[in-house]
Description:
Blueprint: H1 10-26, E1 36-41, E2 53-58, E3 70-74, H2 87-90, E4 91-96, E5 102-107, H3 120-134, E6 138-144, H4 147-152, H5 161-168, H6 173-178, E7 184-186, H7 194-206, E8 209-212, E9 216-221, H8 225-247, H9 257-266
Parallel strand pairs: 7-8
Antiparallel strand pairs: 1-3, 1-6, 2-5, 3-4, 4-5, 6-9, 8-9
Helix pairs in contact: 1-8, 3-7
This protein binds zinc ion.
Residues 34, 143, 145, 191, 215-216 line the site of zinc ion.
Amino acid sequence: MALKEPFPDLGEILVSIGEGGKRIANIDAAEGAAGNISVCIGWPIEVRRRFPVAEEIPLPQPAPHLAGRVVLVTGSGRRLRDIEADPAANLGAVVVGPDGETGTLCTSPGRLFERLTSEWNSHLAVHDDTVERTGTNFHAVVHAQPPHLTYLSHLPAYRDEDRLSRRLLRWEPETIINLPAGIGVLPFMLPGSATLMEANVESLRRHRIVLWSKHGVMARSDISVTRAVDRIEYAETAARFEYMDLVNEERGEGLTVDEMRAVVEAFNVRTTII
Ligand SMILES: [Zn+2]
């Protein structure tokens, strides 16, 4: 997928990041300064009016397929719920250099952070990998820490990827429609580490959302920030049903395999889950 003209302007994209941050906070998935958002833009876009302060920065790892693109990304320690009130102060705009190894970080004079998010390497790697594979001109990545999903990842049985998806996609018919490739699962890995970055890229090739065990999730969309946030909401709602069922001695039926197959057929869903 790629967005078609007329493209959203910078102001509209900043608003969408602010709204996404607020929705993530509203589902209790961004306590304190947890969570981060980035958007990679592949058409010419003027950022210096909103972000006039420029400095050269090394990228945490090469992103050759993003050369010339702009990545808007949240600052470290900023709160997702606060972005909406002043997006420019909470975000940086990185113009990736032609070598894909350095960039120009453009910020607002009112900048409220020292460094970019500690998960900047994972955001950048997922953007670079997706642009290489699909050539998309727009890509949004959201990291959040939804409590029910994260709690389930503390139960060893739920760290089995196939089992997690089968258990979670059975509570509402639209879950499999919105998450047809299910939910990826990674074991616990150190936040911000190269190990997490690499495993995360690999899992997000196969899924639109991946659970980082004992930590949170990362979701992506080549349409909008809202779609990436939607995926987190669908998965977290499913995890809440699963949690409710566990504490209710697993009395819930859930959709049967036949019922799920009927949904898949009626809505023409291409899925690998059932
Ligand atoms: Zn986190």
